[in-house]
Every structure is written in structure tokens, then in C-alpha cells.
Specification:
Blueprint (H helix, E strand, L loop, with lengths): L2 H4 L7 H23 L1 H39 L18 H13 L2 H15 L12 H13 L3 H18 L13 H4 L5 H36 L5 H49 L2 H17 L1 H5 L10 H27 L5 H27 L5 H11 L1 H11 L3 H32 L6 H17 L8 H10 L6 H19 L32
Length: 537
């Protein structure tokens, strides 16, 4: 077998091979430095993190609000009824499988990790007084969690990418499944190959930043749970756990999108529901419900105040270290989540896709965060958990909360299983999109996907060695920041694509005619494919 075939790059163009090898070498070097010099790597990442948030935190806030307005306009205007793939396109996945994939790829183990970590961290280090809103500190800390992971957060960053990919790849018949293809409605078919290559490279780097943070958060949480709850060697068993995750991931790669990723997503959603229900029963039930409801009132009444809180007259950048960090992480995840959601949403309208990304997950996230946040903020839990997050970081706080809870060992097992499920589904979908962007095809071969998975797992293992949990926060902020300059252009380009498509295809009564659309019964346009072997997917 030739070298390019080993990496799944046979038939790829030179610029596509360069995309793969440059990013792969960068990942390998990043992982090696983190393993060999973790303290130096930690210090460098934190310095970059501080620089970006201090000087450009405002940019993430402004951009997030602009993308929110854009997403709402595109969804609830006349363009919302455009069907991805054309009027005759039929959904490829059933309702539960579709929503499960959208949810698990989009929301990861942060539901547990940051569901504990953010409220506890805000309790330990609240915003400078006067606080942005009145009320109990416990409720305000949880309301910030609602802002960052429910709304407006999830409506800002995922829908623009999903809409742009859907409109350019499946309704405009662009022949390359790449991030740069989203600019073609704006730039036309002229010779912009160098600009397109730079956009694709920046997107790959940003995606790596987003998934690296998630892998790192998960790895250190596994370590803390195994060490502090099960009283076993945490680092060693975390390495073994990541090895098992890698084996399951490789199995998913060869099973493909329908049998592999979809089934892993279904299992993860079911496990998440079981763990939330179990926690509600064995935890401080009444207190959790009351804190969740009180925080909901603060969240709804003060949504924009909390979203734009910077406290410019106070020392430090408290608001940017929370909100701008979250928006940077969303931006990094939005690239591959949006493109993956567009891939699995063919046959659905833009409005249905928005609902699957925002409304349904929003309700589920609100329930989960109310249970988890209410749990760690309840009397008897909040003081020791806050002390743990101050002294040992978020993983230590999670372990402390589990140890305080009746049937804590059972809860810890459920948490490990849920976070493992999220890691697997996130890894599955990430490498699927990384490989698609590299090869320019919506059906990348299994060998190239497997290599991406190995590289990302290597980065995840490296993060176990980093001395501070907070170092993981630097990955999406630093690596996604350069890509944000393209986001405005991508959003405007998708509007141009929707406008042109609507004028050419959608009649006043909502019906579509056959020009300029892809119909299921018609031959598909020629699209560059890296053809997999029969057993690859």
C-alpha cells in the first residue's frame, strides 16, 4: 500500500495533502511539547489566553450578538422554509437518531463538567460588586451557566454554520465539502484558491482547539473521579480509559455514520437522562428545584444584562474570562458542529434544523443544568464544593460533590459513562468533519478519519499532564480567534445564497420548482470524492 493510501489521501489534491500534513504535524508537535514540558506549555498557553481575552474579549461579545440576530432572522423569515437538499429531499435519519446526533455532537461533557464547575467557580470568585443583578449569589451563578450554555449561547454559534453549509453544499451544489465553500456565494467562482486554502487551514486549527479543550476537560475529570472517588490510580487508569475510547472510536469509524455515530449518540442521550434522573432522586431534590427555578427567573429577566456584563470600571476582566471564553469555545465548536448538523439534516427545513439545534436541546439543557447546578449549590454541598474548586480546580469540585452524595459510587460510574459517551460522539463527529474538510467530500474514507482520531486522542492524553485545569480553556480562545475574522463573511455569504436560492426556486405559495435544486430522483452533481473501499464505512 502506498504512503498516501495509508493516510487515506489517494486522489487528494496537493493543497489537500498539505492541509492534512501541516495540521497533523502541528498536532503532534503540540502534544509532544505538552508531554515533555507541561509547565512551560501551560505558562505559554495561559499567557496567550490572557492576551486574547483582555484585548479582544469585546470582539467575541459583539460578534456573538450579531450572529444571534442573523440566525433568528434567517430562521423566522421566509428563508426558514427552505428545505436542505431541495423540496423533494427526504430525511436520512429518524427523528430520535437525528436529534440525538445533533445533541451529543453539540453539547459534550461540559453539561456535567461545567455544570458543576461554573456555578462553583463563581461562588468562589464572584463578580466585583455591585453585582450585575440582584438576588442570591447561588442563583446568579447558575443564571450565568444558563446564559453561556443554553441561551443565547447555543443560538449564536451553531446555526450560522449549519445554515451556511446547508445552503452552499446541498442547495447551491458547490462541489467541495469545505469551510471555504461557504464563501463562494459571495466571491463567485473566480480563482481564490489561496484564500480558500487559508480559510480551510484556519478552520481546521479552530476545530482542533475546540475538541482539544473538551478532551482535556474530560481527561482531568476522569482522573479526579478515579482518584478521589474510587481511590484508584487516576492517571494510569485514565490512559487506559482513553485507550478503550480509542478502540470504540475506531469501531465507530468502520461502522460509519448510520450504524456507528448514530447508535453511540442514542446511547449517550439515554445515559445522560438516566444520570440526571438518578441525581435528582438521590441528591437534594427540593433545594435543587428551588434554586433552578430562582436562577431561571434571573436568567430570563436579565438575559442581555448578563450577556454583555464586562464591568469596565473594575480591575480585571471577570466578564471576559467567563462570557468571552464561552463564546470563543462555541465558535471553535460551531465550525464542525454546524457542518455536521447540516450533513445529518438533509431533508429538513432550515427552521426545523434551528429547532433541533436550539429549542429542543435548550429544554433538555435547562433541566440538566437546573439539576446539576441546584445539586452543588444546595446547603451542605455548596461550601465544601466551593472550597474544593478553590484549592483543586473543577475536577476536584466534581469529585467532592460526588463523595457528598448518597450512592456516590453509582453516580460516579454514571458520570464516567456519560462523559465517555460524549467524548466518543464528539470525537466521531469531529474527525468526520476534519476529514471531510481535508478531502472535500461529505463521505470521507475511514483510514483518513482514523488518523485524525489518533492525533486528537494523543492531544487528549497530553492534557492529563498539564498542571492546571484552566490551561485547557486557552485552546479554543487562542486557536479559534484567527478564524473569527471569516465569520462575518460566511454569515453574509449564506444570506446571499439563501436570497438567490429563494428567488430562483421558491414560489409565493411555498412550492419549489426544479431549476437550481437537487432532487432525490435526479442525478447528483459531480462532487470530488475520496472513494472509500467497500468495507471502509
Amino acid at each position: 500500500m502506498k504512503l498516501m493510501e495509508i493516510f487515506g489521501l489517494e486522489g487528494a489534491e496537493f493543497n489537500e495533502k498539505m492541509l492534512f500534513f501541516l495540521t497533523a504535524v502541528g498536532l503532534a508537535v503540540l502534544g509532544a511539547i505538552g508531554i515533555l514540558s507541561p509547565q512551560w506549555f501551560n505558562d505559554m498557553m495561559m499567557a496567550g489566553y490572557d492576551f486574547v481575552l483582555h484585548n479582544f474579549g469585546w470582539w467575541f461579545m459583539v460578534l456573538g450578538f450579531a450572529l444571534l440576530a442573523f440566525s433568528v432572522f434567517m430562521t423566522f423569515s421566509k428563508y426558514g422554509k427552505i428545505r436542505i437538499g431541495g423540496q423533494d429531499a427526504e430525511p436520512e435519519f429518524g427523528l430520535f437518531g437525528w436529534i440525538a446526533m445533533v445533541f451529543t455532537v453539540g453539547y459534550s461533557g461540559s453539561i456535567i463538567i461545567w455544570g458543576v464547575g461554573e456555578p462553583a467557580s463563581i461562588m468562589a470568585a464572584p463578580p466585583p460588586e455591585p453585582w450585575p443583578v440582584s438576588g442570591a449569589l447561588e442563583s446568579m451563578s447558575l443564571s450565568f451557566m444558563f446564559i453561556h450554555e443554553i441561551f443565547p449561547g447555543l443560538a449564536m454559534w451553531y446555526p450560522p454554520f449549519a445554515l451556511a453549509f446547508a445552503l452552499t453544499i446541498y442547495n447551491r451544489n458547490v462541489d467541495r465539502f469545505k469551510i471555504s465553500s461557504m464563501l463562494k456565494p459571495l466571491l463567485g467562482d473566480g480563482d481564490h484558491k489561496y484564500l480558500y486554502w487559508v480559510v480551510d487551514l484556519a478552520s481546521l486549527i479552530a476545530i482542533v482547539g475546540g475538541i482539544a479543550a473538551t478532551m482535556g476537560f474530560s481527561a482531568q475529570t476522569f482522573d479526579a473521579l478515579i482518584s478521589d472517588v474510587f481511590n484508584m490510580p487516576g492517571s494510569s487508569l485514565t490512559y487506559i480509559l482513553f485507550g478503550l475510547i480509542g478502540l470504540v472510536f475506531l469501531g465507530d469509524v468502520w461502522l460509519g455514520l448510520h450504524k456507528g455515530i448514530q447508535n453511540a449518540a442514542r446511547a449517550t442521550v439515554i445515559l445522560a437522562m438516566i444520570s440526571a434522573g438518578f441525581l435528582l432522586v438521590v441528591g437534594p431534590t427540593l433545594s435543587a428545584i428551588n434554586i433552578g427555578l430562582d436562577a431561571t427567573g434571573i436568567w430570563i429577566n436579565n438575559m442581555f444584562r448578563l450577556s454583555f456584563f464586562t464591568d469596565p470600571t473594575a480591575a480585571g476582566d471577570w466578564g471576559h474570562y467567563w462570557t468571552s471564553f464561552w463564546w470563543a469555545w462555541w465558535a471553535a465548536w460551531g465550525i464542525f458542529v454546524g457542518s455536521f448538523v447540516a450533513r445529518v439534516s438533509k431533508g429538513r427545513t432550515l427552521r426545523e434544523t434551528f429547532v433541533s439545534l436550539v429549542a429542543i436541546p435548550g429544554v433538555f439543557l435547562w433541566i440538566q443544568h437546573s439539576i446539576i447546578g441546584g445539586w452543588v449549590l444546595s446547603p451542605g454541598y455548596v461550601e465544601p464544593v466551593t472550597e474544593a474548586v478553590s484549592s483543586g480546580g473543577i475536577p476536584a469540585a466534581i469529585a467532592e460533590a460526588v463523595n457528598l452524595t448518597p450512592y456516590g459510587l453509582v453516580l460516579a460510574v454514571l458520570f464516567v459513562l456519560v462523559i465517555t459517551g460524549y467524548v466518543i460522539t464528539s470525537l466521531d463527529s469531529t474527525v468526520f468533519i476534519l476529514s471531510s474538510i481535508t478531502l472535500g467530500t461529505e463521505n470521507p474514507n475511514a483510514r483518513n478519519r482514523a488518523w485524525w482520531g489518533v492525533l486528537l486522542a494523543f492531544v487528549g492524553v497530553m492534557t492529563i499532564e498539564l498542571p492546571l485545569f484552566s490551561a485547557m480553556q486557552a485552546f479554543p480562545v487562542i486557536l479559534a480567534f484567527p478564524f473569527t475574522v471569516f465569520l462575518v463573511a460566511i454569515a453574509f455569504s449564506s444570506y446571499v445564497a439563501a436570497r438567490d436560492y429563494f428567488r430562483a426556486n421558491v414560489l409565493e405559495d411555498g412550492e419549489e420548482h426544479s431549476s437550481f435544486i437537487t432532487r432525490k430522483s435526479e442525478p447528483q452533481p459531480a462532487q470530488k470524492q475520496s472513494q472509500p473501499a467497500p468495507d471502509d464505512d
